[in-house]
Write a structure and sequence with these properties.
By secondary structure, the protein is of the alpha/beta class. The protein has two domains: about 325 residues, Alpha-Beta Barrel (TIM Barrel); about 80 residues, Arc Repressor Mutant, subunit A. It contains 14 helices and 19 strands. A nine-stranded mixed sheet has the order 9-10-8-7-6-5-4-1-13, with helices on both faces. A hairpin with a 2-residue loop joins strand 14 and strand 15. Helix 2 runs parallel beside helix 3, helix 3 runs parallel beside helix 4 and helix 4 packs parallel to helix 6. The protein starts with about 30 loop residues before the first helix and ends in a 10-residue tail after the last helix.
Length: about 450
């Protein structure tokens, strides 16, 4: 998931703060190398590996991906990934302990099974994995095989996220993604046969020709397979930055009122089936890590969305991948050729980044708590960061308008989103975004 996934007229998704548009070339490979060298040797880190390849383009997609029918480009890319992993690991003080690993895409399971196993083995040689390290991978059920499922099990993968989006054939045709319920069920069975029982589904509302009824039917069919959690995203139509979205007929998109009804209907269906609402777009069974993290006040927001991962450092590998260290954010070169050229020259592929200020950290913490808990104690957060100011004039004005609209309650710096306005959570969080055009 990336910050480019929001539409031109909506607030950011706040996977990180400040968001990617604030990144600049002032933070490059040299700075990132220094930051890596300064990482505490005993602090756990998370790893993200981006695999930007798919077999076909889904027209709704807002993620950076490359379409290929051949395996050679994927193999060449994996070779570059191994070199980047080596470069990064050589800059750290020792083999850093790993808490979480996430393979995102694109379609990570397009990597050949033997190559995936070899890549995981290489990661284990360069970083200190633990028995309880969480390893997750994103899957397209349309190309998933029993052989790949066996490789995931052998590699220690213990969570899988399956793209579903919609089971409505009319919607699937409109977004160029034909995927039957049977294909999805078989992929789930393959995973469970390998002991991978922690399964996520991704659903989308607001797609072309989608109706409230078809959203509910999709949610009902998804629930029948009993994934542990579901992410329910609103389609972000941004054809100016995602050219393939121009293939979607704008007139076929539901209006804002219909989108809200679809979101509410899906939420009602999932809650009735025993799932708990997490943040504003996730749902999890009561014993899932996300539900437990929310209950204990440990829910986090990062580049994978909602997470129970509490690591301060996210080391990201691959083209366009965004990482986070204590000092700030870094982003790799997005173009595959440029990324590969940097790595081939034994250079980090960092193309831009952002160095955090003290105020950025405070605003980011407030935004994260709002996104995770639907409430934030601003004075307490400021105190925890040693920040001597608890009042943000720009935010106060925006919050006052939201309060007048009945969306939030504000009392002595404590902010709470009112019941029924969860869908507007990003707008509430945006009140603390110092860089967003609020006009």
């Amino acid at each position: 998931m990336l910050e480019t996934k929001h539409s031109e007229a909506s607030p950011p998704w706040y996977f990180n703060y400040p968001t990617a548009p604030q990144f600049s070339a002032a933070i490059g490979a040299e700075t990132y190398g220094e930051w890596l060298g300064g990482l505490p040797a005993n602090d756990s880190v998370s790893l993200y590996i981006h695999i930007p390849f798919c077999r076909a383009m889904c027209w709704y997609c807002g993620c950076p991906t490359t379409i290929t029918r051949r395996d050679a480009p994927i193999q060449n890319y994996v070779a570059a990934l191994r070199d980047e992993i080596r470069l990064v690991s050589e800059l750290t003080q020792q083999s850093l302990p790993v808490s979480d690993v996430h393979f995102g895409g694109g379609t990570p399971t397009l990597v050949e099974p033997k190559e995936f196993l070899a890549l995981m083995e290489f990661l284990r040689r360069r970083f200190a994995f633990r028995q309880k390290t969480a390893i997750a991978v994103e899957i397209d059920p349309r190309t998933f095989t029993a052989e790949m499922a066996k490789a995931l099990g052998a590699a220690g993968v213990n969570r899988a996220s399956l793209g579903v989006q919609s089971f409505d054939p009319i919607v699937q045709k409109a977004i160029n993604r034909i995927q039957s319920v049977g294909q999805t069920a078989i992929a789930v069975e393959y995973l469970r046969q390998q002991g991978i029982s922690r399964i996520n589904f991704d659903l989308i509302y607001g797609l072309p020709n989608q109706t409230m009824q078809s959203c509910v039917e999709t949610a009902t069919m998804a629930v029948a397979m009993r994934p542990q959690r579901l992410a329910v995203f609103g389609y972000a139509h941004a054809p100016s930055s995602n050219k393939h979205q121009r293939l979607i007929e704008k007139a076929a998109l539901p209006d804002s009122s219909a989108r809200a009804e679809q979101a509410a209907a899906v939420a009602e269906t999932l809650v009735a089936a025993g799932y708990r609402e997490i943040g504003f777009d996730h749902f999890a069974l009561p014993d899932d890590e996300l539900a437990l993290a929310q209950k204990n006040g440990r829910l986090r927001r990062n580049s994978q969305g909602y997470s129970a991962d509490t690591c301060k450092t996210l080391i990201a590998f691959g083209a366009s991948a965004i990482g986070r260290v204590g000092e700030g954010y870094v982003e790799n070169e997005a173009a595959l050729d440029g990324y590969s050229q940097h790595i081939a020259a034994s250079r980090l592929a960092t193309s831009k980044g952002y160095r955090l200020t003290g105020e950025d950290r405070v605003r980011g913490a407030i935004i994260e708590r709002l996104m995770c808990d639907l409430e934030a104690d601003v004075p307490a957060i400021c105190a925890a960061h040693g920040f001597d100011r608890t009042h943000f004039p720009d935010s106060a004005e925006r919050l006052a308008m939201l309060a007048d609209d009945g969306i939030v309650d504000v009392e002595n710096g404590f902010i709470r989103v009112r019941h029924g306005h969860r869908i507007l959570l990003r707008t509430v969080a945006a009140a603390f975004d110092a860089y967003l055009d609020q006009s």
